[in-house]
Design goal:
Layout lengths: L11 H42 L10 E3 L17 E4 L3 E2 L99 E5 L2 H6 L15 E9 L5 E9 L3 H13 L17 H6 L10 E2 L2 E5 L7 E3 L7 E3 L2 E3 L22 H8 L3 E2 L7 E2 L2 E3 L4
Antiparallel strand pairs: 1-2, 2-3, 4-5, 5-6, 7-8, 9-14, 10-11, 10-13, 12-14
Helix pairs in contact: 3-5
Length: 378
């Protein structure tokens, strides 16, 4: 702000005192106006700077009021020296600025006017007005706590209780029957024995042995062995074989029993009056029978020596060209079948007799005797 000095007319001797008094009064008035304007402008400038610089801006420098006076207050210069006001780093009023008297005094626009600090009593040492810079509000970045995710079980839905009337269960007058507990099947144990041909047995074989047979009864032995039948039950059977082959045959029969190979029946051929055809037709398993080779009258069969055995003749027939014996064994001439009691090359019967050194007639070309096993291979 520029202040215009007015000329004073007085007596020469009082001019000095009047000028001095007027100068002090004008200086105080000018100083008050300058301080007021400087304070307002500084606050406005600092507010703008803080708004633009943000919370990280450096603290603004306080306004420094430096009042200056002319070299001599007794001079008659109509102009007064204006104090330089420094407000912050960017607002300054140039020193020793002369304000022409012809220009109007500009009126600053104040956005906010604060109460000025009281002026000091001694103008020679004015107190600077401290401007408080508002402390920037620290900005804290709070990391949001992650929301806990919980799996909520849907509320259990209770089934409404039925209101229907339940009829009472009728009381049974029948006596409860306890279910029969199946008796565990005991482990089957093979039983077999070898006995010489005594007087009683000799009477029994009166049709299968006769005088003139290649072996005497003393060279034969009676085997009593266990076997499985076609009904799945255990049975006791009898065989007569040569004394030298008795233990071997007994071992083979044990293996058939352990393999649960079924044999329909095992009786002495004398039960069929020594007739081989009747015995085969009955599907009877037999060994000793003093007879000729089938189709070769006068040639003793291996059965005559007690060194051969026929097993399940119907399921394992004798086949020579178109002849099948017994006749009921014709369907089983087709060896691709897998019926009960049939003998196959990879079956337990062939393996059992091969273990004792006996041969199978099923390997013969012609005739092929599927029921026949022998110690000599004939």
């Amino acid at each position: 702000m520029r202040v215009r000095a007015l000329p004073v007319t007085a007596a020469p001797e009082g001019r000095a005192s009047i000028r001095q008094a007027w100068g002090k009064s004008a200086a105080w008035t000018l100083l008050a106006v300058v301080v007021l304007l400087g304070t307002a402008c500084g606050q406005s400038s600092k507010t703008d700077v803080l708004q633009e610089a943000g919370p990280t801006a450096s603290r603004a420098e306080p306004a420094v009021l430096t009042p200056t006076r002319s070299a001599s207050t007794a001079t008659t210069s109509p102009l007064l020296t204006v104090a330089t006001i420094t407000v912050g780093p960017s607002l300054a009023v140039p020193r020793h600025s002369s304000v022409p008297t012809s220009q109007p005094t500009p009126t600053p626009t104040l956005e906010r006017i604060q109460t000025p600090t009281p002026l000091p009593t001694d103008i020679s040492t004015p107190q600077p007005t401290a401007t408080r810079t508002p402390r920037p509000t620290p900005t804290s970045t709070r990391t949001p706590r992650p929301a806990a995710t919980s799996t909520l079980q849907p509320p259990a839905t209770s089934t409404p209780r039925s209101t229907a009337t339940i009829a009472p269960r009728p009381t049974s007058t029948a006596t409860p029957t306890r279910a029969a507990t199946p008796t565990p099947r005991p482990t089957a144990v093979f039983s077999g024995m070898v006995a010489p041909i005594g007087p009683e047995t000799r009477q029994r074989i009166g049709l299968s042995w006769r005088p003139g047979c290649p072996v005497p009864p003393e060279d034969l032995r009676l085997l009593t062995v266990d076997h499985w039948g076609f009904d799945g039950a255990e049975h006791r059977g009898e065989l007569i074989v040569q004394e030298d082959e008795a233990q071997r045959v007994l071992a083979a029969m044990r293996m058939l029993f352990d393999a649960r190979f079924p044999i329909q029946r095992m009786l002495l051929v004398d039960e069929y009056e020594g007739d081989d055809d009747r015995s085969m037709a009955a599907n009877n398993t037999s060994a000793f029978n003093c007879r000729s080779v089938t189709g070769q009258p006068g040639v003793w069969s291996e059965h005559s020596y007690g060194r051969a055995l026929d097993i399940n003749p119907i399921q394992n027939p004798y086949v020579l060209n178109e002849t099948v014996l017994p006749a009921d064994g014709t369907p089983f001439a087709d060896r691709s079948r897998n019926a009960q009691g049939m003998i196959h090359p990879d079956g337990p019967v062939v393996r059992a007799f091969a273990a004792i050194g006996w041969s199978w007639g099923g390997y013969w070309r012609s005739p092929t005797d599927y029921q026949h096993f022998s110690a000599t291979g004939r």
